[in-house]
Amino acid sequence: MRPIEAIYLVFSATLATAGLSMVAFAVRAYLDTGRHSMMHLSAGFALVVTAAIGTTVVAFVTDFEHTRTLLTANYVLTTAGYLFVMYSIVTPE
Question: Average of pLDDT values for 55-84?
Fold first, then answer.
């Protein structure tokens, strides 16, 4: 494994850990408050984490080929996740 691949793996794991923590916090907030916006928030963070983990796994499995397709899929999932996060913020309860 090249150093850049190791760095990519470390940052992907860090992003996944932080993202899953935020998903857990949002789910806990939903259970405590019953606010539906917290479920939208957790769904958004879950999509962002899915994009990060999925991109990392597929990149290593395909030996970093088809990068345009991989990045496009990553951005689609990440954008959808952030749209959920934004929706959770602007939706009145």
Answer: 94
Angle at 77 between CA 76 and CA 79, to 5 degrees: 65
Report how far residue 62's alpha carbon sits from residue 55's, in angstroms, rounded to the nearest whole number. 10
Q: Is 41 helix (H, G, I), strand (E, B) or coil?
A: helix
- What sections of 1-93 are H helices per DSSP? 3-33, 36-61, 67-90
Q: Which of 3, 84, 81 is nearest to 47 (CA)?
A: 81
CA distance 51 to 86: 17
Cβ distance 42 to 87 under 8 Å? no
Average pLDDT score over residue span 13-21: 93
pLDDT digits (tens, 9 = 90+) for 34-52: 999 999 999 999 999 999 9
Q: Indicate yes or no: pTM above 0.90.
A: no
Residues 6+ apart with CB under 8 A from 67: 59
